Amino acid sequence: MNEMSTETRDEVLRAELKAEYSRLQDTYEDFDKRSLTIKGWISAAAVTGASLGLKDGKLPGNEVWIVVIVVLLSIWCVETYWKMFQYGFRDRIRILEAYFRNDKDSKGPPSLFQIYHSWNESHVHDTPIYRYEHKFRPLDIVLRFIKVMCYPFVFLPYLPLIILCLAFYLRIPMQTVGIAILGALAIALLVHVLFVRPNLKKKASAQ
To answer: Cα separation of 185 and 157, whole Å?
Structure first.
């Protein structure tokens, strides 16, 4: 049996990596779809719960708001961890994209069948894949969790609902509640602008 030529092997490798990239991209986007589904359930449950709780014109007992806060905080944490699971695939996607565009930082053709290994290195160890990333990676998993938790597309709608429940629990006037929600959103966005966007700019400039 004749051995495959170098050109044929390169074509086979490129086809396999292309198929892997398509699967990874589909998987990555599925995380977002499921996340939006969870948010839809929470929003519907919040509206239903509020309508049932206020049907007699009276607020439920304080213990109800504590339970709701615990549930919202739990789901917020679950979604944060869900996003971190999703982000574990980003490094492998970046490596494949760098290979296909012949990036100068690419270390040659990536090895096949390395999805889980790459995910583990990214999610668990936050291992840098390029030299310039050593300036900000690895980052402790707890700090990464807090950073992801502060992303606007992650904390919504949980943070405003938690503030609202706290206001009902403490019997705070609704006008004050509105100000508190706007303030919390402003603080979260400020954290995102001060700590997240600068890191993205550093990565872009380093590349």
So the answer is: 10
DSSP label at residue 135: G
Per the structure, the count of domains in the chain is 1
DSSP result, 79-114:
HHHHHHHHHTTHHHHHHHHHHHTT-TT--SSPPSS-
Alpha-carbon distance of 163 to 168, in angstroms, equals: 9
Residue 6: inside a domain, yes or no?
Answer: no
Q: What is the pLDDT of residue 83?
A: 94
Looking at residue 156, its amino acid is L
pTM of this structure: 0.76
Phi-psi region of 171 (alpha: psi -120 to 50; beta: other; left: phi over 0): left
Q: What is the dihedral of CA 146, 148, 154, 158, to 10 degrees?
A: 0
- What residue numbers bound the domain in which 198 lies? 12-206
Q: What is the pLDDT of residue 49?
A: 64
Tell whether the torsion through CA atoms of 44, 45, 51 and 54 is positive or negative: negative
Closest CA to 102 of 198, 197, 10: 10
- pLDDT for position 80: 93
pLDDT-flagged residues of the chain (< 50): 1, 203-207
Considering the domain boundaries, does residue 113 fall inside one? yes
Residue 1 domain-assigned (yes or no): no
